[in-house]
Amino acid sequence: MRAEDEGQITSLARSADGLGLLFERNRAWAEAKTHADPTFFSRLVGQQRPRYFWIGCSDSRVPATEIVDLDPGEMFVHRNVANLASEDDPSFAAALQFAVEILEVEHIIVVGHYGCGGIHAAMGPQTCDAIGRWLTPVRRVYRGSTGEEECVPIDADELCECNVRAQVEALSRNSVVRQAWRRSMDLTLHGWAYSIGDGRLQPVCDPVKISSLERN
Fold this sequence. Notes:
- The chain has 216 residues and is of the alpha/beta class.
- It folds into two domains: 1-47; 48-215, Beta-carbonic Anhydrase, Chain A (3-Layer(aba) Sandwich).
- Helix content is 47%, strand content 14%.
- Strands 2-1-3-4-5 form a five-stranded mixed beta sheet.
- Helix 1 (3-14) packs across helix 2 (20-36).
- The protein is globular and about 55 Å long.
- The termini are far apart.
- The mean pLDDT is 88.
């Protein structure tokens, strides 16, 4: 980039309601990465071969790759409110198909977090807006109407964990995952919960591999 072009971009960024700070931090981050590893960005351009597909919440306090200390390119990430794995959501469906069929990830990890606003909203009155409609699957878990009798939450933390388990169960029935298992693809599903208070992850269900249905 020519020096005059770079200066113009910097000037425009600084005038964009204070967002120039983000550009400046981006430049400092890129320079630090290049200084530590001169080939860092050239390697990223040439490949994307992550082993992990992270399905997490959109909450700004739960940055996926930072939590597990991975570099860009090492984890494929999809985030939405309350970390849902809804097969009828086109955005999620496309991300899952890409992760499994194109990237051939080995692990799909559903990660909920304690103190989730979506979880708390699902425990409140039903609403007819976009958030209310989106959280319908979580509300079903909260009301114990998913058929999973052993998972009837009584508080927000338990609902967080039960919702993660419900999403892992949904993934185990997802056509993309089932087809991968039929092809004998080495694919494992995981359910974790993240604590914002101490930055720690913990599993909330056993890993799921080829289901008994797929073995037949």
